[in-house]
Write a structure and sequence with these properties.
Layout lengths: L2 H34 L7 E5 L5 E7 L4 E7 L2 E4 L9 H12 E4 L2 E2 L13 E7 L4 E9 L6 E5 L4 E4 L1 H7 L3 H5 L11 E8 L2 E8 L10 E5 L5 E2 L2 H13 L5 E2 L13 E7 L13 E11 L2 E6 L2 E6 L10 H4 L12 E8 L2 E9 L9 E5 L2 E3 L1 H12 L5 E2 L8 E9 L2 E9 L5 E5 L2 E5 L1
Antiparallel strand pairs: 1-5, 2-3, 2-7, 3-4, 6-10, 7-8, 8-9, 9-10, 11-12, 11-16, 12-13, 13-14, 15-19, 16-17, 17-18, 18-19, 20-21, 20-25, 21-22, 22-23, 24-28, 25-26, 26-27, 27-28
Length: about 425
């Protein structure tokens, strides 16, 4: 038999063996896997109380003791000022300790599990006055979990991540932003510079047909709708990300004795059930000097270093925030719109079957004649689409180019356009000129 023939025979045998193995894998293996499948490991409840029931947590290890106590729902850590402790982190610890589960009950002695001289002892004080004792012993080399007992009861394993939560040092609870603002909870922002309010934003009690949930009340004489996206981008996002945790050096030139801005923020938690607001929290920030990318901020009487970009909003232009559709009157609340230019005058009328309701049926007239719905709404959209291009700077006003008078469910609004130059006209709302078009 020559070498080529032998190699062909070997190749055929190998291919046949591979084909047989492949057949066995796709046909036999699933059945074996089904036989080998073991049921899910049962989760055993070792300790279960509510987080609200816990009023004290004492953690003792070989090298430290952390003693947390709660009074009037505020957590304290012995040896530290209350303001230096992150309430969020301590609450997370209490939540972690309140529920301990295990995958395994251990049938062994406390000596073999290291529970005669535990590595960690956690004493949990409850509202009832009772104290539960959780002992944590050695690490199981097989399960990579710790042995534990509750009130010297049965021995169980305890997941390592729970032990990691308990073993955090005091520095973990003091490393946090002293200010924790949530954008969704903020409803009023006031920026003052030189003793004057340069920006005052307030959230409307309910979003209206102006398609905005925010309004700007100062520095303008009128109150105007704001652009929600710009309020979020320029104010809410930076405030939510503002980290106040690095104390300024004692000899730092903070400039806070004469701050360049004072920011007052009102916020309140929002109920998930009905959307109502809880108790209002007032936050006052004083903005001082800037050095490189650091700005000094005073909060609760202490000076901190913060990222300058997080307080850039104090320089935001009011024109960037205000809705440029300053003449907008929603058609859903409109009764009449009268347009006058020179000797020309047109009256647009809207009749409502149930004004303000979802089932409101509107009919339209122009100069007393019936008008179709589509064309009427298109025409109205063109008129209210006029938007301001800038802030009026006090230039002399010329003759009136056009006048638009709205009569609506909200009262009367008069918009006048008076010439400033060949390209620009004033945008006057109810006799007050603040914008140009």
């Amino acid at each position: 038999m020559n070498k080529l023939t032998r190699n062909i025979i070997i190749l055929v045998v190998v291919l046949a063996a591979l084909a047989g193995a492949f057949w066995w894998i796709i046909n036999a293996q699933p059945k074996e896997e089904e036989e080998e499948d073991s049921p899910q490991t049962e989760t055993i409840t070792v300790y279960d109380v509510t987080e609200e029931d816990i009023t004290g947590i004492l953690i003792e290890t070989a090298d430290r003791t952390l003693n947390f106590t709660k009074h009037a729902d505020v957590w304290n850590l012995e040896g530290y000022d209350q303001n230096d402790i992150s309430q969020t982190k301590v609450k997370s610890l209490a939540s972690s300790i309140s529920s301990i589960t295990s995958s395994t009950k251990v049938e062994d002695s406390i000596e073999n599990c290291g529970l005669d001289t535990p590595q960690i002892t956690v004493k949990v004080t409850l509202l009832s006055g009772n104290t539960d004792v959780i002992k944590i012993g050695d690490l199981s080399p097989v399960l990579d979990q710790y042995f534990c007992t509750v009130n010297d009861g049965e021995i169980y394993t305890m997941y390592s991540f729970k032990v990691d939560d308990i073993l955090k040092e005091a520095s973990y609870y003091t490393d946090f932003s002293r200010l924790e603002l949530v954008g969704e909870e903020i409803y009023d922002i006031k920026v003052e510079r030189g003793g004057k309010t340069t920006m005052h934003l307030t959230q409307k009690q309910q979003a209206d047909d102006y398609m905005s949930s925010w309004q700007i009340t100062e520095p303008f004489k009128n109150t105007y709708s704001a652009i929600d996206e710009m309020v979020t981008q320029e104010f809410l996002d930076p405030l939510s990300g503002l980290s106040v945790n690095i104390l300024a050096a004692n000899d730092a030139d903070t400039g806070l004795s004469n701050p360049k801005a004072v920011v007052t923020i009102l916020s309140a938690p929002i109920s998930e059930e009905d959307g109502s607001r809880g108790e209002t929290v007032t936050t006052v920030l004083k903005i001082g000097n800037t050095k490189a990318d650091v700005t000094y901020v005073e909060y609760n009487g202490a000076a901190y270093e913060v990222d300058s970009s997080s307080v850039d909003f104090i320089d935001t232009s009011e024109f960037l925030i205000v809705s440029k559709l300053v003449g907008l009157v929603p058609i859903q609340s409109l009764y009449t719109m009268t347009v006058e230019s020179g000797e020309q005058k047109y009256v647009f009328e809207v009749s409502h079957s149930n004004i303000g309701a979802d089932d409101d049926k509107m009919t339209f007239k122009i100069d007393g004649k019936e008008a179709g719905e589509d064309k009427s709404k298109t025409m109205y959209q063109e008129v209210i689409g006029l938007s301001s291009e800038g802030i009026y700077g006090g230039e002399a006003l010329g003759e009136t180019i056009a006048k638009v008078t709205y009569s609506s469910q909200d009262g009367e609004r008069v918009i006048e356009f008076k010439s400033i130059n060949d390209l620009t006209a004033s945008f006057t709302v109810n006799g007050i000129t603040e914008f140009t078009v």
